[in-house]
Amino acid sequence: MLYQEVYRLWQIHQKTNRSIRSLVAQSSYKNKPQLLALLSRVIDHRSLLQTIVDRTQLLERETFLANDLALILVYDQVFGTHVRGKFKGMIKRNQSFIDSCLEELLNEQKLSSIPELLQSSSPSKQTSSIEIPRYVRINLLKTKAKQLRLNLKELSFKKMKNVANFRKGVKRLSIMKYFVDPDVEHVLVFPTKTKFFEYDIYLKRHILLMDKASSLPCIALSPPAGSTVLDACAAPGNKTICLANYLKNKGNLYAIEKNRRRFTDLNTNLRTAGVKCAHTLNDDFLTVSLPFDEIDYILLDPSCSGSGIRNRNDDPEVIDEERLERLATLQIRMVTYALSNFPKVKRITYSTCSIHRQENEQVVETILDQFHDTFQLVDFLPNWPSRGQTERTRACLRASPDDTLTNGFFVACFERIIKLDSQ
Length: 423
Known about the structure:
The chain has helices at residues 2-16, 20-26, 32-44, 46-56, 58-61, 67-78, 88-93, 95-109, 114-120, 145-154, 166-172, 200-203, 216-221, 238-247, 260-272, 321-341, 361-371, 401-404; strands at 134-138, 158-159, 177-180, 187-190, 207-208, 228-231, 252-256, 278-281, 297-300, 347-352, 375-377, 397-399, 409-416.
């Protein structure tokens, strides 16, 4: 049922930081646009919905009801298509309390209608008005770039001429138009609200819906075909698929995921995307047995605060210093392990979807202090506009809605220093 599936995906999103779009894409629920719409709107208006649930004392009367499920039901009853199915009776017996609460809120905020109340709690009223365009990465394991452009043309999409100024190109975008990203190869840029869920190019995995910034670690590594590559924290697998594209399915790609459920999702994602060179391992990167002396490249994208993700509910002004310290400690440990235990590794990327220096520049500087004789930072995209925020980390890349029209992201690329034997 719709409500239970929205609730299930929301719990996963809150626990794992996975994007709601990737969760919906992998759901077995048939009407994915309906699922995505309800989940997105509940998350966007969570504060208002929580106020309604609290004031109506809904959870005190309906003791079986989980808080987040109550938010979902209240949204659909008040702002959606009205609750159906087994929860209809429960909502009906609480309707008078809900109506009274809505009347109070309208009077308090001096609003005249329910739509105005919903609009007043819209994220656009509370956060940056900058819209991130829809980024699409071509999956060359399933199609060719030329063929995909033909498919898009058949779907009535029109390719715009490439522009030198990326921001101007985004401003010129309109419905059913796109252009080729000038910074990242095989990435196409569409208007923000472009939907792909019903198109064969999406269903057959010819395209990947992933933020442009998420491709940066793969670009930094750019492993040639035949290489041996390790994705140390692989789920949900979009970066793994991107690496397999560089490898052209030739070579060895080890993909590690510690969490059992996420490991299952990873395998499904890789299989449906046409990845054939991967060896998946349900294990911990810090303890797993690997052919350590065969690994050429490592992509390390460990757990982080997720503070750079636009659709999260965290207040960016509230910083949990203790949590950041715990995360940074683990991140340093993982990077240290990667640089210490793979004797033939050429490049290692460290990336986060965090905006905090504690998880980004401070981690990198700690690593540089320890490994300055054996590894150095590489500036793999010199023209990228947003850089590391300290003098020693200028080679690192940052991304943000304001600077790059992407989610918040950080990536550092460490390259082994080749020392010539002295005669």
